[in-house]
Amino acid sequence: MDSKNNKKIIFMGLAIAINLVGGFIALTLKLPIYIDTIGTILVSILFGPISGAMVGGLSSIFNAVTFDPISFYFMPVQIIVGLSTGMLFKEQKFKGVKSIISIILVTVLGSAAAAVIASFVFEGVTSSGSSILVAILKNSGMSIITSVFSTQIFTDLLDKAVSFGVVFTIIKMLPVNIKSMVVGEK
Length: 186
What we know:
0% strand, membrane, ECF transporter S component, globular
C-alpha cells in the first residue's frame, strides 16, 4: 500500500472519529440535531461517494458498539448521505443555488430513510432529542409516519446546514498539501 492510500485511510479514520464525537455530543445533550455525519460529508466531498458511504457505515457500527445501539439501524441513512453527497459535490464547488439544492436533496433523501426506519422500527421514539417533537405531533393526532417525517425533515435541514457549514469551513482551512493529496482520488 502506498503512502497516498495510507494517508487516505488515516483521514477516513479521523472522519469516523469526528462522526462519533458529534453523535456522542448530540446524544448526551439530547440536541434536536445529530451532527454525526460531518465526517461522512467531508470524506464524500474529498474522496467520493464510495469512501463517504464506507465512513458512514463504519461510523454507525462504531456508534452502536460504543454508546448508541440504535444508530446501527440508521446505517442506511449514513450510507445514503455518503453516496448522495459524493455524487452531488464531486466538483467541490460550494457556492450558489446548485450547492443549496444539493444540500436539500441530500437532506430529503436521508430524512426519508430515517423517517421510515424510525416509524416502523421504533414507532417514532429513538435515542435522539427530536423524539420529543415526534411525540408532541403524534399526540396532536398526526399519523406516526407524518409526525416522524415532519420532525425529521425539520431537524435534518438544521443538522445538514450545520454539518455542511462545518465541512466547507474545514475544506477551506485544509493545508495545500492535504488538499493536493485528494486531487484526482475520486
